[in-house]
Write a structure and sequence with these properties.
By secondary structure, the protein is an alpha/beta fold. The protein is built from 5 helices and 7 strands. Strands 1-7-6-2-5-4-3 form a 7-stranded mixed sheet, sandwiched between helices. β6 and β7 form a beta hairpin. The protein is globular and about 40 Å long.
């Protein structure tokens, strides 16, 4: 099986970040996981928030979407779709993942996970978005890759963003 080429984006404006979030929301389904990687302030929470807001809007919901830095996991219901937004920054061991129920959610919910390095070696098949700082003050870069069963998700994302 060939590995699809990564998708590299420059997010030079908030509108471009919203466009990526809207494209990701279209791909949301149970069992789809998006790992958000990058340094502090790179935009992981901002991107996740916009994806969740887009999904909630599809079902006519308006809700505050806080960062889960201290709660570690926030969950949402967008119609029949369960959404998990996890910020694993404060985890100290992979054993804590079991307590959160996150591993089970990878199979049953749409998951957005910040600081995926805390998962360890047993990462789920996922779309990984590595965010970084761009040239301008508000510019960000996004390197998007996929593993295993998430490879078709990357293909659909590329198609969606090319339209």
């Amino acid at each position: 099986m060939t590995v699809p080429a990564p998708l590299t984006l420059t997010l030079a404006s908030e509108a471009q970040t919203h466009r990526l979030a809207a494209a990701l929301a279209k791909l949301a389904a149970p069992g789809v996981t998006v790992l958000l990687d990058g340094p502090v302030g790179a935009g992981k929470t901002t991107l996740a928030r916009h994806v969740i807001l887009a999904l909630l809007a599809q079902t006519g919901q308006v809700e505050d979407v806080p960062s889960p830095t201290f709660t570690i996991v926030q969950t949402y219901e967008a119609g029949p779709l369960e959404i998990w937004h996890a910020d694993l920054y404060r985890l100290t061991s992979t054993a804590e993942l079991n307590e959160l129920g996150l591993e089970a959610a990878f199979d049953t919910a749409f998951c957005l996970v910040e600081w995926p390095d805390r998962i360890g070696k047993d990462r789920p098949d996922a779309l990984t978005i590595a965010l970084g700082y761009g040239n301008g003050e508000n510019e960000r870069t996004a390197l998007i890759t996929a593993t295993g069963s998430a490879q078709p998700v990357l293909d659909r994302l590329k198609e969606s963003l090319s339209q």
